[in-house]
Specification:
The protein is α+β, with helices and mostly antiparallel strands. The chain has helices at 8-18, 26-29, 43-53, 59-67, 97-102, 111-122, 167-181, 191-208, 212-224, 230-241, 259-266, 268-271, 279-289, 294-306, 315-329, 333-343, 372-379, 431-435, 448-454, 502-505, 563-566, 573-588, 594-598, and strands at residues 71-72, 79-82, 89-90, 124-125, 127-130, 133-142, 148-154, 162-164, 417-424, 470-477, 482-490, 510-517, 529-536, 539-547, 550-555, 604-609. The protein is 35% helix and 15% strand.
Length: 630
């Protein structure tokens, strides 16, 4: 940063011309004329100060003194007055801060922490009036052009000092703060406020044209001046680039135009239990204080919490959203995203303060589809009647086939197994009737990774025998040909009481059952096991179970699925698993949607037991362990 081109007289003169009291000062001080600065210090006075201090002052501070020998900064809480050339002196660490900061450096401290620890004894103190705060220029923290970093330490706050790379950067920040402090005053209007408001409108139009990267710096600057509307527009751009983060839009909840998009997004945090301090009442009170009706807020929070909320905008965009939700509801997330992406130009802003369909993020089915990359694709797409070049479509997220099941991200716990039933030609909502327990119904879309963990264990359910193995499965459509019911966190053993649900699932067509039971560290060294069974119209056609080096076979197994070919003793468990999963994909056309099962939301239901009752003379043991997952 060069101070040569910076016009200090113009900058300070504009600040002086624009000065008015803050809103909280108006009744006391009125429009009292305040001289923020004075005439500049003569070169002789600046040189004398440098001789007294034994150091040449940094460029931007030196030029400032030549224009104004001191300044009334007037922070809300902090530094009020900067002294002139005759007032400044070395700080000398009167409160012995250095040892306090040095003891926290550790064995491998960051450079910035080392600089901060040494700053207290070498800094130059600038302020002459403050609220237990200090403006300290540090000659030991300098850049290539000789600028010294400026630290503001608010002694009453207990926080680390705020660092600015130079005196000029500090003064520019204070000027922006001066504007932000007075933005609520109706009479605070000047060339700067008008210019910043024009930038906000320019950024709004750029964002709607898909030029969000050009809009961002305009809004960030306007936000630093506290300009109305800049924060809510900027938050939308930031939120879609980081969809799992939180950004506030609460000031819009009083406007009925924005409520359907804004209020559910605002409710995402409390619905996830993130408002522990004060709980629901605090959040509900905050929303109603901003103008929303209590009942509306309560209804939205309830719908967000139980997963029944639906993002339902009007018009062509709303029809595309409904189509996408139906696709994503059954796990076809890439197709759902394509439906949304193609319809984005049809999105209409309900008012000027909404520049993107952020209501998508609150939809329990569609929200998980919006990754940071897709969020940027939304922002780069012209919409709301504006035109511009469309972005290159991003790639699909679901790989073909089943090989992804071997990836660590798919099964974060190494002792997790998985099991799945595919039914050919069936609608997914038919699966509870085919293989569900008595009275089984599909749940609302939920996180399939958590559904089985939250399900009650056999000993916790009345009328369920301890030997039963009822799985909580996620339901969806793997392709036009297959519906699936998937349990991705099975910790049950594939034992001798196992009975395949393939026959029951195949009453109207073909069904396939796969169960992968990994090797587990347990008494008896439980070996890895893999089961496949295929049935059609109620009859099992063929099946095999591989347990360690032992293979059990039934029926006429196709050559492509011959377990002797797929499970070679010399290969690793993972290599064998990959080989059989590839064969199932190529031979039977089986697949599973990775994104929906690992990051999305799907309906679930509880199946009948995957194990039969022990027969006379057969022993059975049941153990229950509590396992904590990240």
């Amino acid at each position: 940063m060069s101070s040569e081109s910076f016009n200090w007289p113009d900058f300070l003169g504009r600040w002086q011309e624009e000065w008015v009291p803050r809103a909280d000062e108006g009744k006391v001080r009125g429009q009292i004329a305040v001289s923020l600065g004075g005439s500049g210090a003569r070169e002789e006075a600046i040189t004398a100060a440098e001789e007294r201090l034994g150091r040449r002052l940094p460029p931007s501070y030196r030029k400032f003194l030549a224009v104004s020998d001191g300044w009334h900064v007037d922070q809300t809480a902090g530094v009020y007055q900067l002294g002139g050339a005759a007032d400044i002196d070395w700080f000398q660490d009167p409160y012995d801060m250095t040892p306090l900061y040095e003891q926290n450096l550790g064995d491998n401290p960051r450079e910035e922490d080392v600089l901060l620890a040494g700053m207290w004894r070498r800094a130059l103190r600038l302020e002459t009036d403050s609220d237990m705060s200090y403006a300290l220029l540090d000659p030991g923290d300098s850049d290539q052009v000789g600028e010294w970093a400026l630290y503001v330490y608010k002694g009453w706050s207990g926080e680390f000092p705020d660092r600015y790379p130079s005196f000029r950067a500090y003064m520019e920040a204070m000027y922006r703060g001066f504007h932000a402090d007075r933005v609520e005053r109706p009479d605070f209007e000047n060339a700067t406020t008008r210019a910043q408001d024009a930038r906000v409108e320019e950024a709004r139009l750029l964002a709607l044209r898909g030029q969000y990267e050009e809009a961002l710096p305009l809004l960030e600057e306007a936000r630093s001046f506290g300009r109305p509307q800049s924060a809510v527009l900027l938050n939308q751009l930031r939120h879609l680039q980081a969809p799992r983060s939180s950004h506030g839009y609460a000031n819009l909840v009083a406007d009925p135009r924005y409520v359907p998009e804004i209020l559910p997004v605002e409710a995402m945090g409390p619905a996830r239990g993130e408002w522990r301090l004060g709980g629901d009442d605090h959040w509900l009170g905050m929303m109603t204080a901003r103008g929303a009706t209590r009942k509306t807020v309560e209804d939205v929070l309830s719908a967000m919490r139980d997963g029944t909320h639906r993002y339902a905008p009007p018009g062509p965009w709303g029809r595309a959203v409904a189509e996408a939700r139906e696709l994503a509801h059954w796990g076809e997330t890439d197709a759902a995203w394509r439906a949304l992406r193609d319809a984005l130009p049809l999105w209409e802003a309900p008012g000027p303060l909404l520049i993107a369909p952020i209501g998508l993020l609150a939809d329990p089915v569609l929200g998980p589809l919006i990754t940071p990359e897709r969020g940027r694709e939304i922002l780069a797409t012209p919409r709301a009647g504006e035109t511009g070049p469309a972005p290159e479509p991003g790639p699909d997220l679901d790989p073909p086939g089943l090989a992804w099941l071997t990836e660590p991200a798919a099964n974060r716990q190494p002792h997790d197994g998985y099991r799945c039933v595919w039914v050919e030609g069936a609608d997914p909502d038919r699966l509870p009737a085919l293989i569900g327990e008595e009275g089984a119904e599909l749940s609302a879309p939920t996180d399939p990774r958590m559904a089985s963990l939250r399900a009650p264990k056999p000993h916790e359910r009345e009328g369920v025998e301890l030997w039963e193995d009822r799985a909580v499965v996620a339901v969806g459509r793997a392709s036009e040909a297959w519906a699936f019911a998937f349990d991705g966190h099975s910790d049950h053993h594939l034992n001798r009481l196992f009975q395949s649900p393939a026959s029951a699932a195949s009453l109207s067509g073909r069904a396939v059952v796969v169960w992968r039971d990994p090797r587990r560290s347990s008494p008896g060294d439980h070996p890895a096991a893999f089961h496949l069974s295929v049935a059609e119209r109620g009859e099992e056609l063929y099946a095999f179970t591989v347990r360690g080096s032992t293979i059990q076979r039934f029926g006429a197994i196709p050559e492509a699925l011959d377990p002797a070919r797929l499970f070679r003793p010399e290969d690793s468990e993972k290599d064998c698993e990959l080989r059989v999963l590839d064969a199932l994909h190529s031979e039977l056309g089986l697949s599973l949607p990775r994104f929906a099962l690992t990051q999305g939301r799907l309906p679930t239901f509880t199946t009948r037991s995957w194990t039969r009752a022990p027969r006379t003379g057969e022993g059975f043991a049941y153990a229950y362990f509590v396992r904590h997952r990240p």
